[in-house]
């Protein structure tokens, strides 16, 4: 005879069953794994190297906490968008290597997001430099 009561199943994602501090500790570990995976991408490595230079420079260049936050935030935002773009590309590549119009569109949109974040960052830094030295 078949037992009509469902048995507990092991969740596909163990993180979903964790709570409190245990969940936070594991989530932090996954975040570090994501940063390590991002480090394998050339563009992300270049942005991290730029951030190592630009973040301290933001404290020197910025006049007040608002400008420092804007300068530093634009650099960090660029790295965030790069990681998201890499995540999109990785997910698309997992689906399959064959060319598909929707896959291309998703990858192109991720690339466009990186471009916009880069232009925003460059614009903020150019304006700050102009304000500091040309005015």
What topology does this entry show?
Blueprint lengths: L19 H20 L2 H20 L3 H31 L5 H33 L2
Helix pairs in contact: 2-3, 3-4
Explain the overall architecture:
It is flat and about 80 Å long. The longest helix is centred in the C-terminal third of the chain and has 33 residues, at 101-133. With 135 residues, the protein is an all-alpha fold. It is built from four helices and no strands. The chain has a domain at 42-134: Helix Hairpins. It has helices spanning 20-39, 42-61, 65-95, 101-133. The protein starts with 19 loop residues before the first helix and ends with a helix. Helix content is 77%, strand content 0%.
Name the descriptors.
single chain, 135 residues, mainly alpha, Helix Hairpins, 4 helices, 77% helix, flat, metal-binding, metal ion binding, DAGK_prok, ATP binding, phospholipid metabolism
CATH topology of the domain at 42-134: Helix Hairpins
Shape: flat
Task: Please provide the ordered H/E string of secondary-structure elements.
Answer: HHHH
Tell me the quaternary state. Answer: single chain
Enzyme class: transferase
Active site: 82
Cofactor: Mg(2+)
Protein name: Diacylglycerol kinase
Task: Give a brief rundown of this model.
The chain is mainly alpha-helical and 135 residues long. The chain is 77% helix and 0% strand. The protein has a domain at 42-134: Orthogonal Bundle (Helix Hairpins), CATH 1.10.287.
